[in-house]
Amino acid sequence: MRFYFVDAITELVPEKSISGYKNVSMSEPYFTTHFPGYPVLPGVIIIEAMAQLAGLLIETTSVASPQKKKALLSIVDKTKFKKIVRPGDRLDLKASLTVLDEDGARAEVSAAVGSELVAETRLTFALLRVPPMFEDVIDRERAALLDALMRTGAR
Questions:
Q1: Which of 22, 58, 81, 83 has its CA 20 to 30 A from that of 114?
Q2: Catalytic residues
Q3: Residue ranges of domains in the chain, CATH in brackets
């Protein structure tokens, strides 16, 4: 993944839930056009941040299968945006796993700024089987990402 929209993981309960956050900074490139003079975090970025966090939960949860899998977002459902997010906000993210089987997973995900809910959605993921030749690469990449995000969240 080239763009990370999760700055830290604050809690990870494998097979159940994950929490983390994204610090929203004025230096992010989309604020130059969304919107000039009144920057607002695009909803698609909020959804992507929620999907990245939920995907990490799913990929760290064991499924009774010897083959490694990669979570791919396949359905965004029942999404509601309740408030806008602006530079300087900290977007707190939470995902709870509701379904997990060999082929897919579903999570209920929310985003808040302080005590105010700003977005919520249901995300469904397809689980793609990783070819054996790429398993080590995926494992190393995921381990490094989790290490960095959990270390940051513990500060």
A1: 58
A2: 34
A3: 8-153 (3.10.129.10)
